[in-house]
Design a protein that fits this description.
Blueprint: H1 2-56, H2 63-74, H3 80-112, H4 117-145, H5 149-172, H6 176-201, H7 214-246, H8 248-285, H9 290-314, H10 316-324, H11 331-338, H12 341-357, H13 361-386, H14 388-409, H15 419-438, H16 445-462, H17 468-478
Helix pairs in contact: 1-3, 1-4, 1-5, 1-7, 1-8, 2-3, 2-4, 2-7, 2-8, 3-4, 4-6, 5-6, 7-8, 7-13, 7-14, 8-9, 8-11, 8-12, 9-12, 9-15, 10-11, 11-14, 12-13, 12-14, 13-14, 15-16
Length: 489
């Protein structure tokens, strides 16, 4: 248990530190993009990214999460390094072919859907980055399988520094989102090179791929691919529809709000990405410890995410005005709604990993397919008429449906968890904090946020949501066993 905690601590602390730096950079830069481009041009830029993401899955088809699981299982076997090296070359070659095909499909679909040529040209440039990402994504997956997320975290910091620097220059020169796409391509090239150096450090060498194994690999990874496609469709379909049925400006308003939410969800992604390979090994080495880990992680995820939803929804209007200016006031109602996906996404991501660790990824795929089908149907029915409010409400309902399905699949596994105590205490602290913050509208926005954080921390202690148990757990995490070193951890 201590070894497990130490590995997760190394990965999550390295990831959290890097992601904190990344988010401080990218958050400020994202605000600059929104302000500099304006609602209409930013709407086009967001629609290009959303459109591309719908086809990005073709270049992966679930091979990345499949690779993480396979490397985690193979690395301790006698012939593991040899098998892992062959697996890398098979997957990277296959992904390059699939990504090239996916890019062609994307461009044809953009033309058939009547996208303007200026957007189709931008998508063609984006396709170059997608092909480069096939190598980067494979390298990142293998580093994750070796639980070396510290390497990928550092690579992403380099990527973000380059992107923010070049992107700021092109924005200040008035080069618009085409300049941003060129900055992205240069940054992706640097990210790919850094991750490639990382996989070389763990012993990966280039060899000839084995095309005869591509079919079996695709069949094994297909459930993961379905999950990736369905999630991409669920998260980006509304932006594509807004751009087609409403306007560039409304697409910009919605994505200004939506991107704020996803900047918060990064916290969950860091934690869950760190946990996944470790939980996979723990399920084999000490499965009896998993229920305790699950309860603790669910409580921590709720402690982080619920106050974001409560406080953010109460402060949506001044927050939008502070970040983006009065021109983006129409984004505030959407932000008030879509912020409630934060706790739901924290839970759904973690619970999905728990199901996958149990080897039931097909169940996750079915759950996500059902949620995505619901999302697509509701967006098609409501979004053309009601716009960004319908898109925001549909996003929340979709994530709630996914959480309910995961809870149903895991009802036996999660039965020992004390849900009532957890939800009442964390929810009570969040509501009390929100009430106190709402009662002080005369305070400046940053002062209200700081006061809310202090009030929430005090409530967590007074309601005993966190206490001696947490301090003991943190002390255990700090005692790093001598055997946990480098890539052998």
């Amino acid at each position: 248990m201590e070894r497990f905690a130490s590995i997760v601590t190394r990965n999550s602390s390295a990831g959290a530190a890097a992601q904190l730096l990344i988010k401080l950079l990218s958050f400020g830069f994202a605000v600059l993009i929104v302000r500099q481009l304006g609602a209409e041009e930013f709407g086009q830029y967001a629609a290009i990214g959303a459109f591309a993401s719908l086809f990005l899955f073709i270049g992966d088809l679930g091979l990345s999460p499949y690779a993480v699981r396979q490397v985690a299982r193979l690395r301790d076997q006698p012939d593991g390094p040899t098998q892992i090296n062959r697996l890398f070359n098979d997957i990277v070659s296959l992904r390059l072919i699939l990504t090239t095909f996916g890019c062609c499909v994307m461009l044809v679909s953009a033309w058939l859907s009547g996208r303007p040529w200026v957007m189709i040209g931008a998508m063609a440039l984006t396709a170059i980055g997608m092909i480069t990402y096939a190598v980067e994504g494979t390298s990142e997956a293998f580093l994750a399988g070796y639980e070396r997320l510290d390497i990928t975290a550092g690579a992403k910091v380099i990527y973000q520094i380059i992107f923010v620097t070049l992107g700021s220059l092109v924005l200040l020169q008035g080069l618009g989102y085409y300049g941003l796409i060129y900055a992205t391509l240069i940054s992706i090239a640097a990210l790919t090179f850094t991750c490639w150096l990382g996989v070389r450090r763990i012993g990966i060498q280039l060899t000839w791929p084995r095309a005869s194994l591509w079919g079996p690999m695709l069949r094994a990874s297909l459930p993961f691919g379905v999950i990736t496609f369905a999630l991409g469709l669920s998260y980006k379909f509304d932006s594509v529809l807004l751009n087609i049925y409403r306007s560039d400006a409304e697409t910009g308003y919605y994505n200004a709000a939506y991107n704020l939410v996803f900047s918060m969800v990064t916290i969950s992604t860091v934690i869950n990405t760190s946990l996944y390979p470790s939980l996979t090994r723990q399920a084999i080495a000490a499965p009896q410890t998993l229920p305790v880990i699950y309860e603790r992680m669910l409580r921590y995820l709720l402690i982080i995410s619920l106050p974001i939803a409560v406080g953010g929804s109460l402060l949506a209007e001044p927050l939008v005005d502070f970040l983006f200016g009065p021109a983006y006031a129409p984004a505030a109602p959407a932000l008030q709604i879509v912020l409630w996906t934060v706790p739901l996404m924290f839970l759904s991501e973690f619970l999905s990993y728990v199901v996958v660790v149990a080897g039931e990824e097909k169940r996750v795929a079915r759950a996500i397919i059902m949620s995505t089908s619901f999302n697509v149907a509701l967006n098609l029915a409501l979004l053309p008429r009601y716009g960004i409010v319908a898109a925001a409400a549909t996003t929340v309902l979709t994530e709630a449906l996914l959480v309910l399905q995961c809870l149903w699949f895991l009802r036996d596994t999660l039965r020992p968890i004390r849900w009532g105590s957890m939800l009442v205490r964390v929810g009570g602290a969040s509501i009390l904090m929100g009430t106190m913050v709402a009662a002080a509208p005369w305070l400046p926005l940053l002062a209200r946020i700081a006061a809310g954080a202090l009030i929430y921390a005090a409530l967590l202690l007074s309601l005993r949501v966190i206490g001696a148990e947490e301090w003991r757990f943190l002390r255990r995490l700090q005692r790093r066993p001598a055997s946990v070193e480098g890539g052998s951890a």
